[in-house]
Amino acid sequence: MNKKNNLFNKYFKIGSLNKLDKYEIYYLNCIKKFIIDYYEKIGVTFDNEIRYILKTQFSSPKFVFKSQNQGIENELILLSVEKYSFWCQVIYQLSHEITHCFIHCNNKDETFKASWIEETICEALSLYFLKLFYKFWQDCDLSKLNNNYNDSIKKYLDDILQKDNGTNRLYDCKNINELLIINAYSQEKRNDRYNEMIDLYNKINKNNIIGLIKYKDYIIKNTILLNTEEYKMAYKNNEAVVLICDIQDKILTTQ
Q: What angle do CA 245, 161, 128 make, to 5 degrees?
């Protein structure tokens, strides 16, 4: 991986520095740089706005929008981790929330959004980044502290891939009403999309990620549906985009 990309990284600040020791600051800086530099390298566009990364007491991580939270000057990436020394967990959560951030940067209109799609994309890309960290661990500065930690990353990823707890509910969805329910509970009931998310993860490569990041451009306004014909035309031969479109097309043709 190319280490020259570092323009975007400076816009992602670590919050509550007074509550962190120098080691935690270093750990988080190394992980966020790897993720953000990768997105920059593959050509994902960015709005050059500052975001802060913070720990949270919430039970799950979250990307906090300015538009939906009056009184905050910057958007926030909240991580649900006890310590930044839990590297696997930080990679997993941070890559997910940074993906939400880049999707938002590329289209900030919330009338063009479908949670069932976006959560599936972010979950799949969090696994993709675990794989990247495992494969290119020597490109992460944390390798200087623990050269063999990529074995732990591989185990963390394998444990997720071997859960086998998907319900196939998205694949088995038969009409728009069922899809609306899946969409409404997209964060709470991830197992409804687990198998579909794994299939998406298996199709992701560096050449088709931009198509996923741009999904909101093809949402039909104020719906949770894509204009699948237009989306597939815009990203021809993008297997990841085709998978998402095919899931929706099957639902709408069977109702």
A: 60
Helical H runs in the chain? 22-41, 87-106, 115-135, 150-161, 169-172, 176-184, 194-203, 209-213, 228-234, 239-254
The rounded distance, in Å, linking the Cα atoms of 24 and 55 is 11
Query: In terms of C-beta density within 10 A (0-12 exposed, 13-18 middle, 19 or more buried), how is residue 221 classed?
Result: exposed
Residue 8 has pLDDT above 80, yes or no: yes
Q: Each residue of 60-113: pLDDT tens digit?
A: 999 998 877 777 899 999 999 999 999 999 999 999 999 999 999 999 999 999
A 10 A CB-CB count for 17 gives: 10
What is the predicted pLDDT for the residue at 1? 44
Contacts for 193 with CB less than 8 Å, ≥ 6 apart: 116, 119, 120, 123, 166, 169, 170, 182, 186
Angstrom distance (rounded) from CA 53 to CA 38: 18
pTM over 0.90: yes
Mean pLDDT of the chain: 94
Radius of gyration over every alpha carbon of the chain, rounded to an integer in angstroms? 18
